[in-house]
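Per reviewer request, we include the raw input and output of the structure prediction for the construct analysed in the revised manuscript.
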Amino acid sequence: MLIKIVRSDEAREAILKDRWPMGGSLDLGLLKYAESIIEDVKRRGDLALVDLTEKFDRVTLTAERLRVSREEIKDAYEKVSEEQISAIKAAKIRVEGFEKQILAHSSFEYEDGGVRIRRVYRPIASAGCYIPGGGAAYPSTVIMTVVSAKVAGVPRVVICSPPRWDGEINPLTLAAADICGADEIYRVGGIQAVAALAYGTETIKPVVKIVGPGNQYVLAAKNIISRDVPIDFPAGPSEIVILADEKSDPRLISRDMLSQAEHGIDSISMLVTTSLHVANMVAEEIKRLVEDAPNREIVSQSLERKGLIVVSESIDEAVELINAFAPEHLEIMAENAYKLSERIYSAGLVLIGNYTPTSLSDYCLGTNHVLPTNGFGQVYSGLSALNFVRFMNIAECSRDALEKLSLTAKVLAKGEGLLNHALAVEERIKG
């Protein structure tokens, strides 16, 4: 059988052992390796980027060609279809609309007895967006990262993405970057790209925050540089968990597990169900579908390595396991799906019902697809415009309110031995 079926109570420990907080730590050897590359970029700047691009991407560049030119961006439009351009614009509009709503509800004014406090946000100065590339194109990740930053008002948004074999970034990625308003685009990827964004080179000026998903090397690099430059959160190989009961449709579940497996051989595709019958049906359907599936080799390897069907005794047991697992994506294809969603507190994104597949949220639902993985959904939220702003409070107090609050302030100040604090209050209410 292509995909294993296990019982929840028997496999729980094995399922969770590599997840945060029980596991989830990056390999020390990988971290040491990433550290050596970061130090090389810090020391040699552009020259290191050129050498490392030739070593890892097998592309020969010069420092002058690290940045994508305006002419190359214009040329990219000639290499993509009108249909693709329309799709990028449509997805941008949906993400933009939702991100604006997030910001609109994040500021407010509070008044109480002569005290007025305004909660306001201000954009950060710059942001670096890592966009996976090389053999594939991810214009959707451009949309998710760049649009969120631009909605927040970030004045300088930089993209780094590895070049293809021909030394170019995929034209679909370039077109998306231009449509979404990226200010600078560089053909550099991997650990060296993260290092350049964090510490700068002769060509790439550093940014104040780095966001975006990537492979284990990018994840390691982000982990290391986060000591100096803030990042969004750990975002590694993609994951889906599907919660199903005896009435769920095995065909839809199987299709979504295959679509998840298509991301790569390290992608996790997991079904948690209360029905052994549904578990068996899904296993058989997956076996049948894989035979003729697009990207069959990647899909089959991924499902064999990281695919799993878990049978739980009850919906309560299933929900408890999912919360402990904290998946990047959770699809609930069970009765009372919305009610069940209220019991989920650890997931990057929750998708409800038969008509909300992960593949829709990956592109044009309006929600962001840059999400915490490997169990970090227990403590991190998905990417949004909020990642690109900082909040501050603007407070104003009337004289009457000061007099009412003065005793509380003075008592606490004197209790802490900060007598000048108390005197600063008294001076204002003397006469």
